[in-house]
Amino acid sequence: RRWLFVHNPRIACALIPNFSVVRLVRDDVSLLSRPLAVTVNDRDNALIVAVSARASAFGVKPGMTAAQVESRCPDLKRMVRDVAAERAAAGVLVTALQQIGPHVAYTEDEPGLFFLEASGLTRLHHGESGLARQMLTTIAGQNYPVRVGVGANRFVARVAAEQARNHDYVIVPETGEREFLSTCRIDCLRPVGKTADLFATL
Question: 10 Å Cβ neighbour count for 198?
Fold first, then answer.
């Protein structure tokens, strides 16, 4: 007789908050002393896609244009997002995470998000907590702030990572998705693309 064991999928998400800004500051620490905004191009009407904490304190937010924030923050340092440099930095992190598990996904549309197929890895890392701690250690070792979430799919794992503190993790237990998501602020629940379809299964 043959037995078929079906395992519920588990996904781990490593989140580097504000990756576009963090990568720039990591490469040039002098940027820490300036309010910083990352834009899609160097035009005056260019959209801002990421801001530093100093810029945020002046009311500068992603989605604004460079022209809109000139009066709010005259000392703002504007830098164009370097997708190629981000891709290279992400590639180093993907390679590092593949030492934990072979299946790692990264997309340039959501910089700073890395997804690891966690099913089958828990025995190697003494449970999901051990796996999450290993991911934290791996990315922190590359000098990045990081949060980790574990859940039944990418959406839940990402929201869990967003709820964690820096260098900490949140694990959503199996079948606990509804209860977990019901405790999250509505602005955390912003699925895009195929992710939106997951709402129908929760």
Answer: 15
